[in-house]
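User: Fold this; tokens only.

Assistant: Input:
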Amino acid sequence: MIRRSFLAALAFAAALPLTAWAETPLAETPLKVVATTGMIADAARQVGGDQVEVKGLMGPGVDPHAYRQTRSDIVAMTRADLILWHGLYLEAQMEDFFHDLGRKRTVVAVAEGIDKSKLRGHDDYADKYDPHVWMSPTLWRDVVVEVQEALTAARPEAADIFAANAEAHLAELDALTTYANQALAAVPENNRVLVTAHDAFGYFGAAYGYEVMGIQGISTQSEAGLNRIGELVDTLVDQQLTAVFVESSVSDRSMRALIEGAAAKGHDVGVGGELYSDAMGEPGTYEGTYVGMLDHNITVIAGALGADVPDRGMNGKLSAGF
């Protein structure tokens, strides 16, 4: 079924008129790149600079665990010079499609290059890994390098440009790591518990010494049962935790149930803020970049849990003060 739909879309794409973009002389033509997640799209823009034209498939608030390619996505990918997807079972429902597409276009799973010894196991699949590696800037460095290598292979004549851009972006990630270490270490130790909608923050917790409790598992497709919510309510009450966090790409319904459950036991819990988990902020905003997304999360978490943080994050660019 997937192969038939792919071939039909390929024929449809071939029948469309050539765009003005395609008529540009080769030397002046940016490399056409399609990326699944916003985080990968941002890495491609940071490394590629004016040598690339990047289309991201999954925008703000989109859950990659449930996303399925549309007809327009297929057309864009069949016309791209390079397709970058995450891998590590993040886009599980699209894997067959990417394997088919790889027979005709250059398709790279950029997170698959990370040394598996650095990865966390998956909650639901013994032979899979937690895909949320973007929650650690240190791990994300490896993905940026994979993006650089993929762009260089696609356009070798621009290798020096990609290398210089990657070096500058990696320096930004190092600065982000320094800020995270400082801000998150300022939270009192007994407050270093992060309660979220799903278990997307495991690498974050491991990197900065936080206990992470998700209502759902690593995938948002897992159901949040009443038993799990009851367990977390008891934890909130027993540890006297006062802040939980909602996510921009996950419904807050279960989180509301958690807050109401704690209230029924006489314990007041509030929302510490909204975090970006599986998708970034709006395009054109600071939070719509990888660095801005993580700066937001770090600042909101540290501030809500008791640290003194800069009002608008490490670069003073956050859209709203804490």
